[in-house]
Amino acid sequence: MKHYLLYFASVYSIALVLLTTILIIALNLSGITLLPALIASAFIAAGHFVKREKRLPTPEEKVQLIWGSSAVAIIIGSLFVFFLVMLNPDAEQILQAADQAGIGLSAVIMLCLIAIHGAVFHVAYHWYAKRCLNRINISD
C-alpha cells in the first residue's frame, strides 16, 4: 500500500500546486477549488491501482487505501492551506480569527473534512475502480 499512498501524495501535491496556482492565484477563485484537485487525484490513484494490479482492491486494501489516502490528503492540504494563508496580506487577521474560533468549531470542521475525504476516496476506490477495471477488461 505504501507505493499507492506515495503515488497519491505525489499526484495530489502536483495537482494542488498546478490547479491552485491557476485557479486561486491567477483567476482569483476561492479555496473551494481545492476539491477538484482532491477528486482528480483520488481517481488517478484508484486508476493506477487497478491498472497495476489488474483487479479491484480487496475490502482490507480498500480500508487502508481510503483512510491512508485521506490522512495523506489532509496533511498535504493543511500544509498547503497554511502556506496560502501565510502568502495572504491579511495572514495575521486570519490566524487570529482561527484562534478565536475555538476547539469546538475546529473539531467540527475537521470531522467534516474527514467525512468529505472519506467519501471522495470511497467513490474513487469503489465506483471509479470498477469503471477502470471494466475498461481494462474491454480493451483486452
From TrEMBL:
Residue stretches spanning the membrane: 5-26, 32-51, 63-87, 107-128
Highest taxon of the lineage: Bacteria
Keywords: Membrane, Transmembrane, Transmembrane helix
UniProt protein name: Uncharacterized protein
Taxonomy of the source species: Bacteria, Pseudomonadati, Pseudomonadota, Gammaproteobacteria, Moraxellales
